[in-house]
Amino acid sequence: MPEFPWSLCWCAALCVLPSVFAEDASLLGGWQDVWLFRLFLNVLGYATIIIPGYFLISYFKRINYLETGRGICFPVIKTCVFGSESKTGLLDDVSPAARNESESSSSARQAVKLIFCAAGLQVSYLTWGVLQERVMTRSYGASEVEGSGERFRDSQFLVFMNRILALTVSGLWCVLLKQPRHGAPMYKYSFASLSNILSSWCQYEALKYISFPTQVLAKASKVIPVMLMGKIVSRKSYEYWEYFTAVLISLGVSMFLLSSSTDKHPSTVTTFSGVVILGGYIVFDSFTSNWQDNLFKYKMSSVQMMFGVNLFSCLLTVGSLLEQGAFFDSLAFMMRHSEFAMHAVLLSVCSACGQLFIFYTISQFGAAVFTIIMTLRQAIAILLSCFLYGHAVTLVGGLGVGVVFLALFLRIYARSRVKKSSKRAAQTPVQKV
């Protein structure tokens, strides 16, 4: 078997990177704002926290601290490193009691609940999408006297804002409402936290290089890498219709991207940067969902998962921001531009409320109804962005969008048919001979 030509890959990378730095520096105003450089600084900041943590965890496991440890710090170290052996508690957010209550309640009450969930999800995430595009693509403080104003550059600070509010909300939820006994070692949340931070950073950063509709379509197509990650991480198998709809989604996204106008982004390097960042978002987000699926084996609730992931996300982002000196620079930007401060806070509120609506909708109506609502939200988000920010979509691009959402609804329909057939098979009585 011939050896893979890694030297060619390195040569190609060395040829592309200088042009990326040059074009991005001219576009964004300085080499400090080049996305690859910022990503390197962010990862370096995370490493200063993760690497010492790794050595500490390895040390405690090596000396068998669970058996020999004593003192005030023992409960904290046990929770963070070893967790609880007990895996009892609530099995799922979709508890049988909640489902029975939903089935026995009146149709009118269920309709009101469904409208409430759909409206909450649509308002939270549509507002979040509009604000996300506003913050990352428009200037603040623009006036006729001063000129074009000032743009906010640090995507990591927005990630921190989202996570600190989500941590507060999930923490209050865990304190006020009864939760299952927690059994997972706390450090295991750090893997999902790191990938979640990087995917969110890529999501914000990509808007500097691509349009919001392109980003939404890319997020809709993430079922493809999710399936790949599922086979790699969780050893999952998939049905033929899942592969078929994945191909349809790829076709629709390709139609949209190849027919998009380049007026907003004339540079091919800029387009390349946007595609690379979007690819990073999809890969990191796919890993996050698969890792969280493995963590749910500890029978935790979704709010506990939300708290654990956001706890480590806050630690990593605030550490990186302080090391770079970007934390106080971002606060100074908020002080200079009260409109940005309002947008950043509202962005975080919408993100946290949206997560709570996700948990409530799934617990009341199941994943299929939730998926339909969120798929409709993606379609409305594209239309809203085109209306508010003037994105032009060609006829072929519109057909591509239609193919993507047709494939998504086909997935929902096929999945519901498979679940119904499996339930019927389980309920069919076996005749005794």
From TrEMBL:
<dbReference type="InterPro" id="IPR037185">
    <property type="entry name" value="EmrE-like"/>
</dbReference>
<feature type="signal peptide">
    <location>
        <begin position="1"/>
        <end position="22"/>
    </location>
</feature>
<dbReference type="GO" id="GO:0000139">
    <property type="term" value="C:Golgi membrane"/>
</dbReference>
<protein>
    <recommendedName>
        <fullName>Adenosine 3'-phospho 5'-phosphosulfate transporter 1</fullName>
    </recommendedName>
</protein>
<dbReference type="Pfam" id="PF08449">
    <property type="entry name" value="UAA"/>
</dbReference>
<feature type="transmembrane region" description="Helical">
    <location>
        <begin position="305"/>
        <end position="328"/>
    </location>
</feature>
<keyword id="KW-1133">Transmembrane helix</keyword>
<keyword id="KW-0813">Transport</keyword>
<keyword id="KW-0472">Membrane</keyword>
<feature type="transmembrane region" description="Helical">
    <location>
        <begin position="340"/>
        <end position="360"/>
    </location>
</feature>
<feature type="transmembrane region" description="Helical">
    <location>
        <begin position="396"/>
        <end position="414"/>
    </location>
</feature>
<feature type="transmembrane region" description="Helical">
    <location>
        <begin position="38"/>
        <end position="60"/>
    </location>
</feature>
<keyword id="KW-0732">Signal</keyword>
<keyword id="KW-0812">Transmembrane</keyword>
<dbReference type="GO" id="GO:0046964">
    <property type="term" value="F:3'-phosphoadenosine 5'-phosphosulfate transmembrane transporter activity"/>
</dbReference>
<dbReference type="GO" id="GO:0005789">
    <property type="term" value="C:endoplasmic reticulum membrane"/>
</dbReference>
<feature type="transmembrane region" description="Helical">
    <location>
        <begin position="367"/>
        <end position="390"/>
    </location>
</feature>
<feature type="transmembrane region" description="Helical">
    <location>
        <begin position="265"/>
        <end position="284"/>
    </location>
</feature>
<dbReference type="InterPro" id="IPR013657">
    <property type="entry name" value="SCL35B1-4/HUT1"/>
</dbReference>
<comment type="similarity">
    <text>Belongs to the nucleotide-sugar transporter family. SLC35B subfamily.</text>
</comment>
<feature type="transmembrane region" description="Helical">
    <location>
        <begin position="240"/>
        <end position="259"/>
    </location>
</feature>
